[in-house]
Amino acid sequence: MKTAAPGFRAAFWSPYFIDGYNDAAQIATAMAAQKAAGDTDVIIEWSVHYDAKDAAYPAAKSLGFPQWNDAVPQIVAAAKKAGMHVWLGLAVAPDSVNNMSRFTNQTWLNAFTTTQEKVADDLYAKYGSSISGWYIPTEPAQVNVATSARATQFGKYLGAVSDYLHAHDGRKPVMVSPSMPTAISAGLTAQQFVSELAPLIAASHVDVLDLQDGFEMTAWTPAQEVAAFQAAKKLTDAGRMQLWAAVYTPVSDGNGAVPVSKMQPYLKALGGAGVPLTEWEFTSYMDPDATVAQGAAMTANYKAYKAYLGLK
């Protein structure tokens, strides 16, 4: 779908969107709206929450993750019906990723890698034929790449999981999404964080590096972000992987509402530089469903976004 300005090609979906109230209708509304705005891909953020010890699908009992909701099967089915491509996330571990006693402990990391492989086996058996790609939801933050040794270690973990996924079906690409905004609390620029990522990228073996740009979490200008992404592209090109941008889009921040007009310069700059754009998340920024939380604000965002794209 050709639009008047650079727009998103994909959006992340969180299993937390599935709240047990009118789920099928809510998913269908959001999926149809996302497709109407020109998106082609849905990225399910995770299937298992390692820290919470539960799953967003009926996981095999041997995994030890009791079912929390039906997010994965419902989203996969809706996306397939809508003709959207699905990237399926493995096990997320937000608390563990930032715990250096774990993520620099090779024994713990090996055990966690095995868990990811077992989750992948289970997901392959249940949904493998319905998905287009995989997402490793352990997002490298600045603390994980603060030293070359840490970055390399994290990269080798990603490489082990990626290699395992590729061994199942090398035609399904693997994605990871480093969190660039975490560099701010460390006093780094976007480009400094990109340079810290170099050892991780080299060892990761992923197909798509979906670098979170940090919109509304940073003071970086669109031009500064483009410069950082250009530096990152040199690294991803060397690793024969694609570079995408994950644009963080909250309905509101500490200063109030975040209108589409504030997001547009970043989309134009990054999209104009040839970087495919991903939204984090459609269902928490512009889902035009009045029945969900902040539905009115998101509907307004959706209308403004379609107007920006030149779509009716």
From TrEMBL:
Transmembrane segments: none
Gene3D superfamilies assigned to the protein according to its UniProt record, in alphabetical order: Glycosidases
SUPFAM superfamilies in alphabetical order: (Trans)glycosidases
Top-rank taxon, per record: Bacteria
Domain DUF4434: 28-289
InterPro entries hit by this protein: DUF4434, GH
Protein name: DUF4434 domain-containing protein
